[in-house]
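Students often ask what a 'structure token' actually looks like in practice. Rather than answer in the abstract, let us consider Thiol:disulfide interchange protein DsbD, a protein of 713 residues. Its sequence is given first.
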Amino acid sequence: MVRLLARLLALLGLAIGASAAARAEATSADHLALELVAEHTALVAGAPNWLGLRLAHEPEWHTYWINAGDTGLATKLEWTLPAGWQAGAIDWPAPQRLQIGDLYNFGYSGEIVLPVAVEVPAAAAGSTASLRVLANWLVCKEECIPGKAELSLSLPVVAGGSATGDAAAAGLLRRALAQRPQRLDAANAHYRMDGDSVVVEISGAGLPAAAGLDVFARQPQVLANAPARIEAADGGLRIVAPRSEYFTAAPAQLDLALVRRDGDSVTAWQVTAKPQSAAAATPAAAGTGLTATGVAGGSDIGTWFALLLALLGGAALNLMPCVFPVLSLKALNLVESLHSPAAARRDGLAYLAGTVAGFVALAAALLALRGAGQNLGWGFQMQSPVLVAALAYLMVALGLNLSGAFVLGARLGGVGQSLTEGSGARAAFFTGLLACIVATPCTAPFMGPAVGYALTQPPALALAIFAALGLGLALPIVALSFLPLLARFLPRPGAWMNTFKQLMAWPLYLTAVWLVWVLMRQAGADGTALVLLGLVVLIGALLLHGSFQLRAPSWPRRLATALLLLLALSPLAVLQPQAESTSAQGKLWTAWSAQGLDALRREGKPVLVNMTAAWCITCLANERVALSSEAFARQLQRDGIAYLKGDWTSQDAAITTYLAGFGRNSVPLYVLYPRGGGAPEVLPQLLTPHLVADALARAAAGSSAPPVQRSSP
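Now compare that with the structural description of the same chain:
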């Protein structure tokens, strides 16, 4: 009898020890008890094992979910594990909505376990592992207390299938895992901006009923934290939630947790909503603006409408000053080739191929970089000081060629020999490429919505929209090439062409000066001085090459020219961007920041935001025409309008994110926030003094332009 009792006591001790091994000793903190628990009494090698941080809150106290809501901080875990082990992120159970006065927080009260999957290598079987976690939390009632504690757990590691469960710990973990939002794979969800609201529409099989549902966004500062309206609509669900007052950018996807609570029972679903449209519904007519609704969300503009906008935007680029130097080169080709219809058509198609290839190549590079995690927008290549300097070199070289300092080819067209030997098509192709490169700093009407839409679409469709931009840019030249009747309006070739060619060199020189000015903003005085020195050497090399062309070719002359060219290009190898050196405040404006804008909006002040760049000629033209006059300054001061300017000359991720929030991936962008809050108004990309004055008056009065409705093209 004594022996039997001893054996029973030993077995009971083993059971108690095994259970204790699956749960570490609880740690007490202010208004909170913490405990590290494991699903089994031993870890299983070669498989994921569920562990969890158990939080037991005192009544009326709470900690926070991954999105804490209006105030608070999410609980964080930092694991210390044996080599080769891996701990995942917290697999958050569905949160509660916790109201404190006018504030809404998301988190947990009572008892909750935050589960984490830990991967144990197969080679660890037979060992004993010590697991440690550093927990950081914020526990709140009306006041908040931050806390930190290190918890540890020592468990044996066994081969698969031989672990036994700890009923209490396994029950806690099973309950937490059951409260995780389960993905609705069959659901199709999209969201859009509708004034000051975010509308999410969900369709598909297996959707929960709308009654009793609550919704939580994993991303902060998209939805306001007050309860949303959830209703059945068109066989699915529609969620209408107030937009966060701190909203700055529409996310690429909106992750939502739909939660139903029935006493202690919690059921939750996870839905991922894509933006219905990241582009504006329609371009603004002259004298009107677009509201943020039309730009950041609104109705889906559709593929065909985006292609039409891209075509029109590309054609409008021909009117932009940044394209004029290249058009001057192409004008010389047209004068010569339009009197030969076959050559004219060939040149036109080659020019078209160049513009389309240029836009598609730039778009492919942009999509690849964005896919790799770079936060870039259209015109990104002009944010590289090396490329800006290289373009300045190119403009000077082309200008010297037109001035007669040296000859690239035997005919006026440029690269190669005569048109009859095929060089005209090559020259036209590379002229098209050059037109594409220098056109990207400009943003023409119709172009912004098309580019914004393209960058939210699959790669093939995005590239097609950028190809339409190239087609639009080439359209006037192609039309001239294929319509022989237009030749009668052009002068006949003659001696005047040499004078015309020399005159056309000056826009190229002026473009080079502008590029050097842009470079000074990007690379500073030292970098600019190096490039200017390189330009002097380049001019000398090309003048020397021109003098050698009048003599018999020889290898010493070629070597001398090549060495000078290498010396001229050497500054490009050491050119580095520097931090923006412009003043944080001008006479009229203050440097933009998301925090500064939020502070002004909380004060209820009207705000004008100007997103610009030194390489954006459209931006500079707008500032000269409409944003620098005495009347503009007086109106800002009289009406108490804050003027914020964001400089995108060099890459700035915060500005890129702000642009994306309005469906844009390029500058200029002009946004007016009215007095007292309300939906912001997006102004057209080409400004006039009258248009700006009217918009400022609306903002000062606390109103904005009505949304522009799109009609199908």
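One point worth highlighting: The CA atoms of residues 333 and 412 lie 7 Å apart. Ask yourself how you might have guessed this from the sequence alone, and why that guess would often be unreliable.
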